Structure formats: structure tokens, C-alpha cells
Amino acid sequence: MASLPRDVMPTVALADQVRRRYPHLDKAFYLDMWPFTGPMLMVISPDLMRQATQGEAPLPKVGFLKNYMKPISGGHDLVSMEGEEWKRWRDVFRPAFGRATELVPNIVENISVFRDQLVGRAKSQNGVFQLHHSSLMLAMDMSGKAIWDHNMDSQRGYNDMADAIVSQLRWLLVDGFMPFASLNFIRPMVHKYNSFRMERYITGVQKRHKTSKNDSACVISRAVAKVRDGSVDKKESEDPYRELGGEKHFNRVIKSQMRFLLLAGYDTTGSTITYVLHILSQHPEILAKVREEHNEVLGTDISRAAQQLKENPHLVNRVPYTTAVLKETLRMYPPTSTLRNGKPGFYLHDRDSSGSTTKFPTEGCMIFGNHHGLHHNPRYWKDPERFIPERFLVSSDDLSGLHPLPDAWRPFEKGPRACMGSELAMVEIKAVIMLVAREFDFTPAYQEWESIQSKSAKGEAKIV
């Protein structure tokens, strides 16, 4: 680990680094995490991950997630829920994430702001800026509109909700991994203040929605309408909120989901936008194919692209090569992993080519389904360190061996607890690529950026 950058996330890099150093540990291995937490079973095999998350009785999420997510969501989010409560709320929200293309016109508005800011950056004196920050604010605005039908406008100015979420993320910690950090007495005060800011902001948004007569296609409005129309509880004569804990609890959970879903679409989508634009800058031959596809679908007049996409949202589903580029980006840089609690009598079974079986007991262990380790594992991916979009274009019987193995590609996880917003995320990011890739060339400028930062620290320059 000493060879890795200082700010690398160790739990993500660890599986890949161990597999490289000890090639025989390329499916699963145990880690002794004392004194920070209990033992961990690190899994980098698609079949073992399938057993943990997609079987008849998938393992539950780890217990500390509820405490971890509470400062962000308020404690009633879909990630933290388990059992019947989770099933009921999943049934409320899963249909609400359908028909993502209906949200494309609003998404295009947010991307147009992003595009205009890129033009301004390109015309500035040095042209050096942090693309990741711009991408995150774009993701924040897209999520606010798609989830809440609310214009956050955090790309162009200060937004209290966005600021509270970013602050809350900076102060988050996993108590199980960092027990001494929890002794910081300032942390709970910051969490409480940021939660107050988020609740205040959401209350204002809800009040404005109540006074508006416009029907909204946003996720929250669809979910609320599903319940109030009585479509969750089949008996129309009964209280539609009864199965969800009553109207008061229903409203509390809706607020919590509004907070959680905004976060869920912020960091993951923003980071992936950064990665895909960076990767395209490093592969001009792939970028040329992407641009050619966009010319065919949107026409050669780049100035008309945004309007074309607004008028014909379904065009985001007519770019197979762009979709393959995005999927390959998500393979190389998966946004999440999965953590599950083991239980007595539950074993993960690995069967090798000779027919023998290795049993991995899970009792007392935290199971870490490490997506980065899996997606870079040469046992399951041909040339995993190469960026090859064609993996997702060839058929399963193709002799090249590029086609993904079953359950090997899982950036959004799989099984009943897979990310419900995956379709929306794919639509958002494809729309960004379609409206940005032809107009801009990006060049990494790490040394120049570090030089600017150094001068700024000495008072010789300012970072814009």
C-alpha cells in the first residue's frame, strides 16, 4: 500500500493490490481488521458475489450503514432499511425510477449550463480548472431536478442544500473503521447543524410544490402519487398510508429519501462524468468513434444538439457505442461496492475446474463485494487494464473472449438491492457525453494545477 497515492481509498485498492501480490488470492480472502473492526471476507469473484447478493436469501447490509447514513438521510433511507420495511418502500420507489427518458429535457437544461461554463473556462487565460468539481455540481443540479423537480442552480452560485451535503460528506466517518475519530466533539455538532439546514431547505421545496399546480414527472412526485392514489395498498377504501406506518411516518421517510437520493446521484454520477471525459481525452481513436456516432444521431450542427435532444429524448438510447464507452468506464472505475453481514451457517461456495469446492464461512464476518477488484481481475476479464468498449458490443459467443462473464459487470450491484437509479444515471451521463464530447478537448494538467495551488498558498496567485 505504501506505493499507492496518499489519498487513495485503501479498502477499494486493497483487493486489487493483494491479488497482484498473491495471485492465488484471486477469488476471495480474509482480512484481520483488528482493532478497528471484525474480520472481513474480501470477495472479487462474480459467482461468490452472486451468492451473497442474488441468492434465495441474500445477506443483509452491514449494521453500521444505518449510523453512517443517518447524518446524510436522517435515518430512513433505502440503503439502511431491511426486511419488510425495505420491501414496502422499494415497491414505492422502484416504479418511480422508470421512464428516465422523460426527464431528458430538464437534464439538457442543466448540461447546457455545464457547457457554457466549459466555454468560459476554455477562454480563460490559463484554462486550468478542476473538472471534477464542475462535474459534481452538474450532477447535483441534475439530481435535484430529476429527483425533486427543483432547480438547485448550484453550478452558477451558492446553494445551501448542496453546501450542507458536501459539508456532511466531509465529516462522515465509519465508526467501525475509525473508532478514535468519533471522539471529535465537533463532529456531532456539525452533523446536527447540516441536518437542520437540509430539513429547512427540503421543507421549503415541499411548500413550493404544494402551491404549484404543475404535474411533475420527478421521482419523488411519482412515488408520492403512487401511494396517495392507493396503488400500494390494493384496497382503495383503506388508508393509503397504513401499510407504510401512517401519514406522519410516510412524510418523514419521504424527506429522508429526498436527502438520500440527492446524495446518491451526486458523487457517483459526478465522478463518472469526470472519468469518462478523462478517458476519452486519453484515447483519441475512441473519441473519434464517439463523435462520428453523435454526428449520425444528432446531426453535424453541434449548436443544434441540445435542442435535438430536448425534442427527441429517445435519442439517448440510439448511441450503442457511447453506451459501451460508458459501461467500460464504469467497469474500470466502479462508483461503489457492497458490504454485507455474514451469518451462522451461511457459506460461499467456490467450485474450481476440477470439481472440488472451497467453502468460505461468513459467520462473524463483514463480506466486502469489491467491485474494483472484480472489474480488474484478469481471471474474469480479458486485458482488464485496457479500455476496450467493444466488450459490450460483441456477443457472448464471440471468439475474442471480450464479452463479460455472467454477473462480472456490476457497477450498480445486482439482485433485489441493486441501485434503482441505474437507468437514470446512464441516461444522464450519456446525455452529458452527447452534448460535450464533440465540442471540447480535455488535457490533463496535474503539474500546472499543483503549481497554481503552490503559488496560491504563498499568496502569489489565486485559484479560480
From TrEMBL:
<dbReference type="GO" id="GO:0016705">
    <property type="term" value="F:oxidoreductase activity, acting on paired donors, with incorporation or reduction of molecular oxygen"/>
</dbReference>
<dbReference type="Pfam" id="PF00067">
    <property type="entry name" value="p450"/>
</dbReference>
<dbReference type="GO" id="GO:0005506">
    <property type="term" value="F:iron ion binding"/>
</dbReference>
<keyword id="KW-0408">Iron</keyword>
<keyword id="KW-0349">Heme</keyword>
<protein>
    <submittedName>
        <fullName>AflN protein</fullName>
    </submittedName>
</protein>
<dbReference type="InterPro" id="IPR002401">
    <property type="entry name" value="Cyt_P450_E_grp-I"/>
</dbReference>
<keyword id="KW-0479">Metal-binding</keyword>
<dbReference type="GO" id="GO:0004497">
    <property type="term" value="F:monooxygenase activity"/>
</dbReference>
<keyword id="KW-0503">Monooxygenase</keyword>
<dbReference type="GO" id="GO:0020037">
    <property type="term" value="F:heme binding"/>
</dbReference>
<feature type="binding site" description="axial binding residue">
    <location>
        <position position="419"/>
    </location>
    <ligand>
        <name>heme</name>
    </ligand>
</feature>
<dbReference type="InterPro" id="IPR050121">
    <property type="entry name" value="Cytochrome_P450_monoxygenase"/>
</dbReference>
<comment type="pathway">
    <text>Secondary metabolite biosynthesis.</text>
</comment>
<dbReference type="InterPro" id="IPR001128">
    <property type="entry name" value="Cyt_P450"/>
</dbReference>
<keyword id="KW-0560">Oxidoreductase</keyword>
<dbReference type="InterPro" id="IPR036396">
    <property type="entry name" value="Cyt_P450_sf"/>
</dbReference>
